[in-house]
Amino acid sequence: MNFTSLAFLAFFMIVWMGYLIFPSGGRKIWLLAASYLFCALFSVTALCILFVSTLVTYLGGLALETGRKGEKAAGGTEKTVFWAVTGFHILALGFFKYNTLGILLPVGISFYTFQAIGYLADVQRGNMEAERNFLNFALFQAFFPRLIQGPIERSGNLLTQIRTLPERKLRDWERIREGGLLILWGLCEKLLIADRIAIPVNAVYSQFGAFGGVEIALTTLLYAFQIYCDFSGYTDIARGTARILGFDLTANFCRPYLADSVQDFWRRWHQSLSSWLRDYLYIPLGGSRKGRFRRALNIMLTFLVSGIWHGTGFHFLVWGGLHGLGQIFDIKNWKLPGIMKRLLVFLFVDLTWMVFRVNSLGDLKGMIRILVTDFRLRDFAGMELTVLEWLLIFLGILLVLCKDLANERGFGFRQWILRQNAVLRCLIYTGLVAAVVILGVYGAAYDTSQFLYTQF
């Protein structure tokens, strides 16, 4: 069930109405049932795998806390428990990602696996008390707005909110307005911008030999905005639905293409993943505490893991390695104007998106050869867009850039809209809804069945 479908809208409305009707004691059960149904609609097998993962993590957390407190029953074996349960999760994730048996990747497994490992690490370190209420923990792992693409939540954030849910006010119209605007903007990012950009990108990257270097360069530039608007759009819809239900999910993006260094880019892009990798991999490996060589090695290992996490193709590993090198030899200390740094970082990120997007390293080699030896326009019509659609793409990208630039300077578009009177707000909402309905990418010719990061 896709977030942009009418089926999801109906599902969410039913969940929300039931959520408001149920007494405080039944809200968690209702939400967990809805989350499990949401997962089962993708695959009953995926639901079973999610439940097993949840149960193993829940029991592992209890055993870790017992061992950490030094109780005799544990015998001081908390490290063994931690690595056994973590190893179970890593092996399960590796099996489903890399199996050659044709078994499909269970929906959300990459995200809830990392969330589970983070929870176990927090319990082992004493940063979080193990959750003894299985209902709370099951909802923490399965909460449907963040199930299929994250964000990867920390137990200190989402689990704490679940624990205090019965005491919180749910009919908060301010939260409902904020959540609705987040959902509406997420739909605009996805249906107006990302899915329209996907048309020429898919056409060129699937048959690059029929195109010249100009088309390849143009679609590579566009892909940077496709993946940004697609994933940011999903995150906004997820945060909006969660906010209406009374939860605050982690923001995943903070104007990433305005970064002035590769390190700064990763502080802004997919923040829940990058902070997870920092806190649960890079720092435990030693971070920057053991000299320059060890720091470089730790950075490279961290980004290679990021590449492996994203996909099975060798090109994902290369993409991770390039970003590792980008951090090791970062431009943050170069004596350049800020605008020049931002342009260089964007160019680096965009070129590495090309490595990320290709189907194989063989395709990458072929596309680079065309860029170098045949930089001309060969089949612009083959990119399958009309003049109006090209205009809509560039207007959409311009809108995103203006929004990010304004937010970077402290002017929040969303906050500005929410401060306006009811008539102006209604006009803005109506305009956005009309734009999504009239100009959004729909129909059999387009694949809007998945957000990009669902495959990871």
Question: Can you walk through the features of this model?
Answer:
This protein is mostly helical and 456 residues long. The protein has 2 domains: 6-167, no CATH class; 175-261 and 331-455, no CATH class. It has 18 helices and no strands. It is globular and about 65 Å long. 39% of the residues are buried.
What is the compact description of this entry?
The chain has helices at 6-21, 27-42, 44-68, 78-98, 109-125, 134-142, 155-163, 173-206, 213-244, 262-268, 271-282, 292-310, 314-328, 338-357, 361-373, 387-408, 413-419, 422-439. By secondary structure, it is mainly alpha-helical. The model has no long low-confidence stretch (mean pLDDT 91).
Helicity range: 55-70%
Count of individual helical segments: 18
Mean pLDDT: 91
Largest sheet: none
Strand content: under 5%
Number of domains: 2
Unreliable residue stretches: none
**Span between termini:** 17 Å
Strand-and-helix sequence, N→C? HHHHHHHHHHHHHHHHHH
* 3D shape: globular
Rg on CA atoms, Å: 23 Å
Number of strands: 0
Structural class: mainly alpha
